[in-house]
Structure formats: C-alpha cells, structure tokens
Amino acid sequence: MKNDVRYFWSGWIDRYSYAQLAIVFVLLSVADFLATTRMMPHGIKEGNALANAALDLDGPAGLAVYKSILVIAVLGILWLVHRSNPRLARGVLWGGITVMGVIALLHLAIISGMASGLGLRVP
C-alpha cells in the first residue's frame, strides 16, 4: 500500500527539479569560496580541515580545485541516486542547500561585522 501522507515540506522537495537544485548548490558553493577568500586576509581560516590543507599547499587555487572536486563528487553521487530514487536525491540536495545557506549567512555576518568595524571574528 502506498503511503499518501504529506508533510509541510513535501512540496518543497517535489517542486524543483534535480538540475534546479544542483544549480543553487553550485552557486552557494561558489559564494562560500568567494567569501572564504575575502575573509582570509583578515585572519579567518577555512573551517574544513582538508580544504584548509589544500589552501596551505596551493593557496586559493588549491582551495578552488578542492571545492570543485567536492561539489562535482557530491552532485555526481546524488545524480546516481536520483536515477533510482529522485525524491531521496532531491531531499539530500535540499539538506545540502540548507547547510550551505547557513554557511553563507554566517559569512555575511562575519564580513558585515568586519566592514562595520565591529571586529566580529570566529576563532
């Protein structure tokens, strides 16, 4: 018997295609990279230890390559999942978008704090 229970978030998962959600995820990832490179001269470090190692080895270019590979891998794996279970893949992608959105808001708060002279820093 098919489960016809709908939740308040059901429409969000089903409303957008995998491609639309993937584009949003890529844009948020690019925003994360740009914000990170913008904050580096002010002593802010990359939060991901592996990305920070790539940054230490090859500078911003190494970070860009690392983040690009990571985004491609995530979207590739989710594309494979999408072929057999589209709803699950879109749901996981929505989770990634939510996390990246929170990170983007944190970056905005840090950058605006630096710009306004508040000296807002994350250790």
Main sheet, how many strands, which sense, barrel? none
Distance between the termini: 52 Å
* pLDDT averaged residue by residue: 85
What is the SS-derived class? mainly alpha
Question: Overall 3D geometry?
Answer: globular
How many distinct helices?
Answer: 4
- Radius of gyration, in Å, reads 17 Å
Roughly what percent helix? over 70%
Low-confidence segments, given as residue ranges, are none
- Whole-number count of domains: 1
Beta-strand content: under 5%
Secondary-structure element series: HHHH
Number of E-state strands? 0
Describe the structure.
The structure is a single chain. This protein is 76% helix and 0% strand. It is mostly helical. It has one domain (26-115).
Short description:
By secondary structure, this protein is mainly α. The chain has four helices and no strands.
Write the layout of secondary structure elements.
Elements: H1 10-15, H2 18-39, H3 49-84, H4 86-115
Helix pairs in contact: 2-3, 2-4, 3-4
Can you tag this structure with a few keywords?
123 residues, globular, mainly alpha
